Amino acid sequence: MSGDISLATNIYIVTGYTDMRKSIDGLCAIVMDQLKEEPDDHSIYMFCGKRCDRIKVLLREPDGFVLLYKKLDVIQGRYRWPRNKSGIKSITWQQFDWLMSGLDIEQPKALRTT
User: Fold this and answer.
1) Contact 21, 50 (CB under 8 A)
2) Most buried among 7, 28, 62, 68, by the most CB within 10 A?
């Protein structure tokens, strides 16, 4: 199925601010600049703008790239996006779930799963 992110084994978020006017080519250039490699088909790459109310997800499939876009429709709804510096950070599926639920990706009091 086209755009199925559940097949990804790696999740990367581009911390800091991303210009949300960028298309697939511009987002690929960011990934290549930060990781020094081309986006692979086992990873998803997530980007967030200054407003923190929309996210773009870049996914590579065997025949090309897919760009997913999510904009929150909740009034004053915001993602808790890491802004400390511009770079790429690997996160787990649990952290992805926290992020998409409006929580910080670092949950020091969360139960650890082994």
Assistant:
1) no
2) 28
